[in-house]
Write a structure and sequence with these properties.
By secondary structure, this protein is of the alpha+beta class. It folds into 3 domains: about 40-45 and about 225-295, no CATH class; about 55-220, no CATH class; about 315-455, Glutaredoxin (3-Layer(aba) Sandwich), CATH 3.40.30.10. The chain is built from 12 helices and 24 strands. The strands form 6 sheets. Strands 4-5-6-7-8 form a 5-stranded antiparallel beta sheet, with no helix packed on it.
Length: about 450
C-alpha cells in the first residue's frame, strides 16, 4: 500500500475513534445533568376543577365611563369597574426585564385589564363584565339581583357558590408571543360587613363614603397548577398556587390533600427534601407549565423555617438595644415561641391574652420572642407596657402591607406572609410547630400541654 494512502486511512480511523469518544463523553455529561435536574410538567386547573379555596380580587370603581367602552347599559345610577389578575404584575416585570419586545407589543396595546359595570335600575342591581375584552358590553350578559343581595354574598359562601362562572379573556405572554388567555371567574356584588367584623374603634377609621358604598364588587376565581413525577419508583405530586408576588409550591406523597391545613408552602430558590436528597426549586416557566429543580450536594437546608426543619442561631438586637442570639433564650428553657405581630394587626392583638396565658402556664420551660413588624417603635413600646408583655421583644421597622418593600431577614428567612405567625423551636433549634392565627396558636398550646403532661407523669 502506498504510504500516502496508508496515512490517509490512519487519519480517518483516528478521527472516527475520537468522535466516538467525544460522543460518549457528551452522552455521559447529559446523563449526569439529567440525573441532577428534575423537570415536572404542570397542568392548569380552574373553576370547579381547582382544589384551591379561591382568590377574591377586589376591583376599583372609576369616576367616569372610559370613552372606549361601548354598549353601556342604561341605569338609574352606575359605576365602571376595572380589575386585573396576577398576570399584570408578570407582564410588567417582563417588560421591565426586556423579555417582551415593547416595539412589537406596545404595553398600552395589551388588554390585560378587566372592565365591568355595576348599576341599579328600579329595585334591582345589575352587573355585567366585558368577558371577551372587546370594549363593548353589547354582547355580554347582564346579571340581575335584588338590591339587598350584595349584603348576603360576603357572609354566606353558599350564596356565592350559586353565581355562575364566566369565561373571561385577557392578554398574556407565553415567552414568545402575546396570546389570549382565559380565566373562569365570578363577578360578585359585594357589601363588606364592616359592623360585623370590626370593633367600634376600628369602625371609626373607616370613612362614611366607604361604609355607604353600594358599588363594591369582587372578582372571584379558583386556579392552581398540578403535576406528578416518579421518584425512587414512587409517584409524587406537586401543586402550585399564585402567591402575593411569586408562586407557592406544595410537594405531596398523596394527591389532593387539604393543602390549606398543612405546612408552609415552598417558594422559588427554596430547598426541598425529595427522597434522600435536597433539591433547589430553580424556576418555573413563564406559562407555569414546567417546574425545574436542581439536586444539591448538602445534608440540610441552610436556614430551615418549616416544621421538622432545623433553624439557625441567629443574632438580633432586642427592642432595648441589647445584642443577643436565639440560643440565649434557650439557656434555661426547652422551647422558644416566636410570635410575629404588629400593632396594626387586629387578629394579633386579639391573641395577646392567649400569649400571656402561655407565658403564665408554660413559662417555666418556654421563652417567648415577639417580633413586631411595624412602621414606628413608639406604638409597639406603648402596647408592650400597657399590656404587661414581660418577655423578649424585637422591633422590625417596615410596612407589612407594602409588597415591594425590602423585608428584614427575620421576615424573609422565616417566610412570614401572614400575621400573626407562631413558630415553636426546641433547644436543638428544631422547628417543632408552626402556624398562623388562632388555629396556629392552638396547635402550639397542644404541643406545650403534651410536654407538661409528660413532665407530670
Amino acid at each position: 500500500m502506498d504510504m500516502k494512502v496508508f496515512l490517509q486511512y490512519f487519519i480517518i480511523i483516528i478521527l472516527i475513534i475520537s468522535c466516538n469518544d467525544r460522543k460518549k463523553e457528551l452522552t455521559k455529561s447529559q446523563n449526569e445533568i439529567s440525573s441532577n435536574t428534575l423537570k415536572i410538567p404542570l397542568l392548569e386547573k380552574q373553576g370547579a376543577n381547582s382544589i384551591h379555596s379561591g382568590t377574591l380580587q377586589s376591583i376599583r370603581s372609576l369616576e367616569v365611563v372610559p370613552s372606549f367602552l361601548k354598549g353601556v347599559p342604561k341605569a338609574d345610577t352606575l359605576k365602571t369597574l376595572v380589575g386585573w389578575f396576577a398576570t399584570s404584575k408578570k407582564l410588567t416585570k417582563l417588560y421591565n426585564d426586556g423579555i417582551i419586545d415593547s416595539i412589537k407589543y406596545p404595553k398600552d396595546s395589551l388588554k390585560y385589564k378587566i372592565y365591568a359595570i355595576n348599576g341599579y335600575k328600579g329595585n334591582q342591581q345589575f352587573l355585567v363584565i366585558d368577558a371577551n375584552n372587546n370594549s363593548t358590553f353589547a354582547d355580554d350578559t347582564l346579571m340581575f339581583y335584588k338590591k339587598d343581595f350584595k349584603d348576603s354574598v360576603a357572609v354566606n359562601k353558599d350564596i356565592a357558590a350559586k353565581i355562575p362562572w364566566i369565561d373571561v379573556i385577557f392578554d398574556d405572554f407565553d415567552g414568545e408571543r402575546v396570546f389570549k388567555r382565559k380565566y373562569k371567574v365570578k363577578l360578585l356584588p359585594w357589601k363588606s360587613p364592616y359592623h360585623k367584623i370590626l370593633s367600634p374603634e376600628q369602625l371609626k377609621k373607616i370613612s362614611k363614603r366607604q361604609l355607604d358604598n353600594i358599588f363594591d364588587a369582587n372578582l372571584f376565581y379558583k386556579i392552581h397548577w398540578e403535576g406528578s413525577y416518579t421518584f425512587n419508583d414512587n409517584q409524587k405530586y406537586v401543586y402550585v398556587f399564585e402567591g402575593f408576588n411569586e408562586p407557592r409550591f406544595f410537594f405531596r406523597d398523596q394527591p389532593k390533600l387539604d393543602l390549606l391545613q398543612t405546612s408552609t408552602p415552598y417558594r422559588i430558590k427554596d430547598t426541598v427534601l425529595l427522597g434522600d436528597n435536597y433539591y433547589r426549586i430553580d424556576s418555573i416557566s413563564i406559562q407555569w407549565d414546567t417546574l425545574s429543580l436542581r439536586k444539591l450536594a448538602i445534608d440540610s437546608p441552610v436556614w430551615g423555617y418549616r416544621k421538622d426543619e432545623k433553624t439557625v442561631n441567629f443574632d438580633y438586637t432586642n427592642i432595648k438595644g441589647e445584642g443577643k442570639v436565639l440560643l440565649d433564650l434557650l439557656k434555661d428553657k426547652e422551647f422558644v415561641l416566636m410570635d410575629y405581630w404588629g400593632t396594626w394587626c387586629a387578629p394579633c392583638k386579639e391573641l395577646t391574652p392567649d400569649l400571656k396565658n402561655i407565658d403564665q402556664q408554660y413559662g417555666d420551660f418556654t421563652s417567648i420572642l415577639s417580633l413586631a413588624y411595624d412602621r414606628e417603635k413608639e406604638p409597639v413600646l406603648d402596647y408592650i407596657e400597657e399590656n404587661g408583655l414581660d418577655w423578649e421583644h424585637i422591633f422590625l421597622e417596615g410596612n407589612a402591607k407594602n409588597g415591594k418593600e425590602k423585608r428584614h431577614k427575620l421576615i424573609k428567612n422565616y417566610a412570614i406572609e401572614a400575621y400573626p405567625t407562631f413558630i415553636l423551636i426546641d433547644k436543638d433549634l428544631n422547628i417543632i410547630a408552626r402556624g398562623t392565627g388562632r388555629k396556629g396558636l392552638q396547635g402550639i398550646y397542644e404541643v406545650l400541654e403534651n410536654v407538661r403532661a409528660n413532665k407530670n407523669n
